[in-house]
């Protein structure tokens, strides 16, 4: 009995001290507008359920915030977040709050201090070093790889011509992995012909476990997670992915130190990192290459897959894309060049409208490091900031009454010029935006152009979505394809 009383007293004293230390946070919270909060639980009940229900709850909560002026607070357990859907406030948050939210720690277990999740002070140093290797001139050297792998994709898709619906994402993600492996590491993996590899199985397993931890509160504390079989499974699969990248890094390092790297011609990103003035350790190289490979593959593959879904259910827009491609290529079956990609104005608008409607990174989390003045509130240091591009991009307040409709011409220059720069942020915004955005856009254009020159796509409307770190359609990216009569 004495032990139970002692435990109770210690718990009460801990809670009192916890509240005392966080008193400024609670005082700030009381001054903030709130929507959908319940006693004790705060907003935690909105974040319970499977991935489909979870996204719908987040969407409803964010839409309530949007309709009430675009600024509110949410409590998830002991963590306070300010939710802002006003472009002016979002710009201030993304420009001034460069520290990632604590929820990214689950990815950090895997990606270490790679650029995507690195603490801000380390990120500042490494971003300066990595920025030149993502220069447009460097990325444009990879256009040939985009075309070659897009051509393989077209050949692989031939097995689905005239057949019932199939999930195109499986084909697109294999194509993107081949592109990313070759451009980031110089490794020709041929994933398109060999999709079931130990590396990919391990990678998918780790992503599944991280997603589970993000949205299941009882698995978030390391002490509890480490008691589950998932902890061992995660470690084994992380070790397997690290082993693969470590072997590539060690091989490239040995070539570099022996003077065996090629002096002329296209260089992969790992080679370029090895030649920078800042000397990265092998572990740092692995962390950056893993971040590029993992963050760059799924996001790009998802946008391409969503674009095919949208064009498959919007015949007029698909015909406009095809006519644009026909005007560029004629009857030639050659691979796209830089000049060709620069002429694909309508296809680029299709890609941007796809990223607006199906923002594959639906939530961005940041944390204030010092006081930040927003439009009508001053945020103290240490507060989480949640930006929801998926909701902002469909906001009728920002995009008009037809915000849910597919209309690529929203991105005509004369329309975009009137829009706040943070009304559309598929690559985030500010200094910590996506370093690979030019790579992604060129790769997406090249793959879509190659597929749409060869096949006509049909699909149904997407009506059910889920969040699994990224945004996925519940039934998959289901399309059917038919060979076009005329090549272009």
UniProtKB/TrEMBL annotation:
Presence of the UniProt keyword Iron in the record: yes
- Cofactor(s) essential for the protein: heme
Give the highest taxon in the source lineage: Eukaryota
Checking InterPro entries in the record gives: Cyt_P450, Cyt_P450_CS, Cyt_P450_E_grp-I, Cyt_P450_sf, Cytochrome_P450_Monoox
The record describes its membrane topology as: Peripheral membrane protein
Q: Where is the signal peptide?
A: none
The protein's UniProt keywords, in alphabetical order, are: Endoplasmic reticulum, Heme, Iron, Membrane, Metal-binding, Microsome, Monooxygenase, Oxidoreductase
This molecule's function is given as: May be involved in the metabolism of insect hormones and in the breakdown of synthetic insecticides.
* Family statement drawn from the similarity comment of this UniProt entry: Belongs to the cytochrome P450 family.
Give the protein's recorded name.
Cytochrome P450
Q: Record the organism.
A: Loxostege sticticalis (Beet webworm moth)
């Amino acid at each position: 009995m004495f032990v139970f009383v002692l435990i109770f007293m210690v718990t009460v004293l801990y809670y009192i001290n916890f509240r005392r230390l966080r008193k400024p946070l609670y005082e700030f919270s009381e001054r903030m507008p709130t929507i959908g909060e319940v006693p004790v639980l705060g907003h935690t009940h909105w974040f319970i359920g499977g991935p489909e229900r979870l996204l719908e709850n987040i969407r409803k909560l964010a839409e309530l915030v949007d309709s009430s002026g675009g600024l509110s607070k949410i409590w998830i357990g002991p963590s306070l977040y300010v939710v802002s859907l006003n472009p002016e406030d979002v710009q201030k948050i993304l420009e001034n709050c460069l520290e990632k939210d604590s929820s990214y720690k689950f990815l950090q277990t895997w990606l270490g201090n790679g650029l995507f999740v690195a603490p801000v002070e380390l990120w500042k140093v490494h971003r300066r070093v990595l920025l030149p290797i993502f220069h447009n001139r460097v990325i444009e050297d990879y256009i040939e790889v985009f075309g070659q792998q897009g051509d393989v994709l077209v050949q692989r898709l031939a097995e689905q011509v005239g057949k019932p619906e199939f999930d195109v994402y499986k084909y697109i993600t294999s194509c993107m992995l081949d592109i990313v492996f070759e451009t980031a590491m110089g490794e020709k993996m041929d994933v398109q012909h060999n999709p079931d590899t130990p590396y990919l199985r391990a990678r998918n397993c780790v992503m599944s476990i991280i997603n589970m931890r993000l949205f299941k509160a009882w698995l978030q504390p390391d002490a509890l997670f480490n008691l589950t079989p998932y902890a061992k499974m995660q470690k084994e699969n992380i070790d397997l992915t690290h082993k693969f990248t470590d072997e590539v890094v060690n091989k490239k390092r040995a070539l570099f130190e022996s003077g065996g790297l090629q002096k002329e011609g296209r260089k992969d990103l790992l080679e370029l990192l090895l030649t920078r003035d800042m000397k990265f350790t092998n572990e740092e190289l692995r962390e950056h290459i893993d971040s590029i490979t993992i963050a760059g593959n799924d996001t790009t593959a998802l946008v391409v897959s969503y674009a095919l879904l949208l064009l498959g259910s919007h015949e007029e827009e698909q015909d406009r894309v095809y006519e644009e491609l026909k005007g560029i290529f004629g009857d030639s079956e050659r691979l796209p060049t830089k000049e060709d990609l620069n002429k694909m104005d309508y296809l680029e608008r299709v890609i941007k409208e796809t990223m607006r409607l199906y923002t594959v990174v639906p939530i961005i989390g940041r944390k204030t490091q010092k006081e930040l003045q927003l439009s009508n509130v001053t945020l103290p240091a240490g507060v989480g900031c949640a930006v929801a591009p998926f909701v902002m991009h469909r906001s009728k307040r920002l995009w008009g009454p037809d915000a849910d409709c597919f209309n690529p011409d929203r991105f005509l220059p004369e329309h975009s010029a009137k829009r706040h720069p943070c009304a559309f942020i598929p690559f985030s915004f500010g200094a910590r935006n996506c370093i690979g955005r030019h790579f992604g856009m060129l790769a997406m254009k090249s793959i879509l152009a190659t597929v749409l020159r060869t096949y006509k796509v049909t699909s149904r409307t997407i009506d059910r979505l889920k969040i699994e770190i990224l945004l996925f359609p519940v039934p998959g990216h289901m399309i059917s394809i038919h060979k076009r009569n005329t090549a272009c």
